[in-house]
Specification:
The chain is α+β, with helices and mostly antiparallel strands. It is 20% helix and 30% strand. A hairpin with a 5-residue loop joins β7 and β8. The radius of gyration is 21 Å and the shape is elongated. Pfam families: FYVE, ZFYVE21_C.
């Protein structure tokens, strides 16, 4: 499946130009769909400051949440790569702040994830481990693990993530699902509690039995820790996209 070319096409929506996969099944797991706009007849006034709309006070829809605002409350145009917009788009104050924070992930963490890190990988309950390079695919849909063998995990298969640090063991209560990862500060780049590995639990398509993948930082622990920290930040976006 991962070898299928991911063609892109330019589409125009009421919100602006978007560059999207030709096949919707190949959307990035971090992406969000466009919201339904609140109908004009249902918003006679700004949904932020309550100023009534008239000939002089025009209404604008936030491209991220779809709600109606006056120009003052929805004046910022901010990049929104999660919805595949080509250019920055109009967003309300609250949404623009969220989008600006997400840009750190798109500008920095995605590059770290696609650059990869080296880990000692154990599949399932096997006692055999292999040193492998783990990286995120260019379409953001797969984790590629390459060593003497090749293995891949589709992000949509992952059900939970167990983060290991230099101060923790697998037996400790450090299991994080996407829900609990949302506000977690458990991992930080260069922090006191540096990530040293993770356990992924996932269900491959067509399988009823969950599988386990264990990854522990190899010799370049700094790069591996940065990769794990980026994965931690990406987990929040994955959860939000699934919950949409």
């Amino acid at each position: 499946m991962s070898s299928v070319p991911d063609g892109k096409k330019l589409v125009r929506s009421p919100s602006g130009l978007r560059m999207v996969p030709e096949n919707g099944a190949f959307n990035s797991p971090f992406s969000l769909g466009e919201p339904q706009w609140v109908p004009d007849k249902e918003c006679p006034s700004c949904m932020q400051c309550n100023k009534k709309f008239d000939f002089l006070t025009r209404k604008h829809h936030c491209r991220r949440c779809g709600r109606c605002f006056c120009d003052k409350c929805c004046s910022k145009k901010v990049a929104l790569p999660r919805m595949c917009f080509v250019d920055p788009v109009r967003q309300c104050g609250a949404c623009s702040r969220v989008s600006q924070k997400e840009m750190d992930f798109y500008d920095k963490q995605l590059k770290v994830l696609m650059g990869g890190g080296t880990f000692i990988v154990t599949l399932g309950t096997s006692e055999k481990s292999e040193t492998m390079m783990c990286r995120l695919s260019n379409n953001h849909r797969y984790l590629f693990l390459d060593g003497e063998s090749h293995f891949e995990v589709e992000l949509s298969w992952i059900s939970s993530m167990q983060v290991l640090t230099e101060e923790s063991t697998p037996e400790e209560n450090d299991v994080y699902t996407y829900t609990s990862l949302l506000d977690s500060q458990y991992i930080s780049e260069g922090g006191n509690c540096r990530a040293s590995g993770m356990l992924l639990h996932y269900k491959p398509m067509g399988s009823q039995d969950p599988q386990q993948l264990r990854m522990e930082a190899a010799e370049d622990k700094k790069t591996a820790s940065s990769w794990l920290a980026a994965m931690h930040k990406g987990a929040k976006l994955l959860y939000e996209a699934r919950d949409q």
